[in-house]
Amino acid sequence: MKVLMILVILVSFLQSCVGSFDYYMLSEIWPPGYCHNNPCRRHGPKFSKFIIHGLWPQNTTPCETSKLEEFPRDTLGKLEKDWPSITHKPNGLFWQNEWDKHGSCSMLPQIDYFKLTLDLYGRADIKEILRKEGIVSQIGDVKRYTKYQIENAIKSHPNIDAKPQLICYQGNLAEVRLCFDKSPGHKYKNCSTSYTCPLDNIKLPYLYPKLPVMEPEEAELLRAIPPL
């Protein structure tokens, strides 16, 4: 009887550890829109697809972090292609920050967290989903869309069937966030409503915003950031 009680307590403890967050939120950014409100790189590759911002466990308890481990070569290649830093942070520092703030709360080993993020991202091509519904990015940014059009295009896709969360900066679509159940299989689930996008006149910008010339002091500070 005493052994049974100990097992019950142990199982309850383990469940409380695993259950320290409610669900996952995957943030994908549209770089031309995201850079309207964030300090993006002036040089380097320009992306014309949605790329990963991060996978964020929601409603977490305090988490312990660790130094970023070396990635297997194939995983590193996928991270560089689908989860690059477009700000002044080197990729390694960006991934470390995402792990510190979010990944360490996932209750997953480090490599499993990054692989899960890549897997969830690979389930749906948001740009292609929007394109099939006539929501496109083009030179001149002449087209405008309603929040309902964008939400419904994503929600009505048979692979998703769940409401996304949209983030806009100055009327430009910057992020699409998709939510997933934390249980094995990680089914899509409805995200909470976002109020950062207007109801209409939303743009999917084609061009990156014009950036100011970098001051010498800023350039010196950036050069001083050690690579990971």
From TrEMBL:
Gene Ontology cellular component annotations, sorted alphabetically: extracellular region
Swiss-Prot/TrEMBL keywords: Disulfide bond, Endonuclease, Hydrolase, Lyase, Nuclease, Signal
PROSITE patterns with a match to the protein in the record: PROKAR_LIPOPROTEIN, RNASE_T2_1
Classification via CDD domains: RNase_T2_euk
UniProt feature coiled coil, ranges: none
SUPFAM superfamilies noted in UniProt: Ribonuclease Rh-like (SSF55895)
Record flagged with keyword Zinc: no
Annotated GO biological process: RNA catabolic process
Protein name: Uncharacterized protein
